[in-house]
Amino acid sequence: MKFALVLLVLGWxxxxxxxxxxxxxxxxxxxxxxxxxxxxKGKPARSFHFTPGKVVSSGGLHDKxxxxxxxxxxxxxxxxxxxxxxxxxxxxxxxQAGDIKIExxxxxxxxxxxxxxxxxxxxxxx
Length: 126
Fold this sequence. Notes:
Elements: H1 2-20, H2 22-27, E1 33-39, E2 45-51, E3 54-59, E4 67-71, H3 74-84, H4 90-97, E5 100-104, H5 106-114, H6 116-119
Parallel strand pairs: 1-4
Antiparallel strand pairs: 1-2, 2-3, 4-5
């Protein structure tokens, strides 16, 4: 439940940033990326479609995501996202342990990590 709520709020935040933050919008230029976040079992799941100037968030599994971030379970995903703001290595450590698996283009995940400075509250304003 907590992971599903975090994904929903993340979608709202991404959409708001695309609308209100010029620096974030600049990062979306020339992008057409569908990033999916889910558990190994497939639920909960949410996709984020990044296009120039816009982010659309949808619940459930997407047919053809560009990259999928799979977490071993919802509670692990929630804990990882909690610490990721302070410890950017949390994702790498999870991947090394096999608790997080990437499907698709890992370069798009690296691009997404550059957006963290905007996503976290108190992040970059412009």
